[in-house]
Amino acid sequence: MTVISARRTGALLLRQYYLIRGSVARLVPLFIWVTIDMVLWGFITKYLNTISGAGIDFVPRLLGAVLLWDFFTRVMQGVTLAFFEDVWSRNFLNLFASPLSIAEYVTGLMLSTIATSAIGLVVMLVLAVVVFGLSFFAFGIALLPFLLTLFLFGIALGIVACAMVLRLGPAAEWFVWPIPGLISPFVGVFYPLSTLPRWMQWVGYTMPPTYVFEGMRAIVAGGQGSGPLLLWSVILATAYLGAAGWLFARVYRHAVRTGLITRYSAETLT
Amino acid sequence: MTASDTVLSVAHLRKNYGQTVAVDDVSFGVNRNEIVGLLGPNGAGKTTTINMILGVLEPTGGSIRIDGFDVAGQRRQALSRTNFAAVYAPLPGNLTVEQNLRVFGLIYCVKNLEQRIRELLAQFDLERFRRTKCGVLSSGEQTRVGLAKAMLNRPRLLLLDEPTASLDPATAHDVRAMIRRFAGEGECASLWTSHNMYEVEEVCDRVLFLSRGRILLEGDPKTLPREHGRATLEELFIAIAREPLALER
Lengths: 270, 249
Prior knowledge:
The complex is a heterodimer. Chain A is mostly helical. Chain A has one domain. Chain A has helices spanning 6-21, 24-27, 32-52, 58-88, 92-96, 102-131, 143-168, 173-176, 179-187, 198-205, 209-220, 227-258. Chain A is globular and about 65 Å long. Chain A starts with 5 loop residues before the first helix and ends in a 12-residue tail after the last helix. Chain B folds into two domains: 3-81 and 156-247, P-loop containing nucleotide triphosphate hydrolases (Rossmann fold, 3-Layer(aba) Sandwich); 91-154, no CATH class. In chain B, helix 3 crosses helix 4. In chain B, strand 1 (6-17) and strand 2 (20-31) form a beta hairpin. Chain B has helices at 46-53, 75-80, 97-107, 113-123, 139-150, 169-185, 197-203, 224-227, 233-242; strands at 6-17, 20-31, 35-39, 61-66, 69-70, 82-86, 157-161, 189-193, 206-211, 214-219. Chains A and B meet through helix 1, helix 5 and helix 12 of A and helix 1, helix 2, strand 6 and helix 3 of B.
């Protein structure tokens, strides 16, 4: 059984705090992109409300979807950015030649993203609710599994992205940024899954956010989110998280066996 | 010397990269209060050996025990008793000296951390750089920060890979004295690599000459050259680098 040391995982959280506190370039992106998204989509939804004339309120449909999707994206990027700090500062040798275990390292990345994504979520909620009148709490108790699913899947995808960069080298960082954009068409952020061709729907059903956005639309349409489906989305996201942790550990073991950790910047995999 | 005196025990260590043998059946021990020099030309296998001891490179064969703990099977226990400084592993330049020491002190679960940080800042003459980011320090100052980090947890095994490579002679002299003092006052065993034979002679109690992944010679750095018909350790080093087969043990 792996024992996680609070001091060691706390060290990674503290490192992230020091970096953010000491750098405007790290502090501002925690809220600037979500602010831009909220303002942009807030006005788009207001405009759509004025021209649709069908009595459809686009605020919860579109702005709610953007908010949830941005939360998911921030969670994923919170994990990868904490990992990239070690890539950029060539810190792998110092960390992995210490008593820090891989489970503690990954837990440290998760703690970092809890802190950073919470800042983005608060900013988005304030803007969406206060400025654009999104009644976010109209989602009721379903909000909790919505956020939990997106949080767990965001962490899982972030860890997969870290494993990819660990395996392929620092330049693979550029594969990481498009990942949310790549999966967004399949999970139906802005449209029902039934809009998609059958094969895309099947891909969508394998990803937990699909159930969140379907559930959100069901509630906005006056119905209720399906409890069993939301529970399934949490279970599925948890399974993805376990698989992502396994993948990272496997990639790490490969890196230790081949010497990749010790000459990481050389990008020996071509 | 008893088994309890042996802090580092390396047995039949081997590392292959495909068909290339980087380290070939290397066995040695380092005892407490002993500084052992691991010498050899570039590519001899010194850093590969150190990386395996640090658990960041998996051996193809053999075993490594630190203070009785197997690095492969009891990694945490083994590495919590170890620390290292290497010129190719500087601490993150975007954190201050104090922040780096605090973060790594937590990772090594150092007791009374704040007091330990104060001691090390004083010992390595780093107090005025306490709130300076490591990235803007000179290479010599960064080396001192790396050494302070290496001594945070009062390791039983200290691995030093060319610790004075970027230091001026006066600072290098001071750093050698600090390391000797540290090694002498505790229960610490040190493994030291260097290309400065004067330094090795001054600091090391014993040296191991590595060439093409194998230990060719072992002995007292003060007497070893004469035992092999050379006037100085540097001459012996050059002979090993050029004609390793002639000196194979």
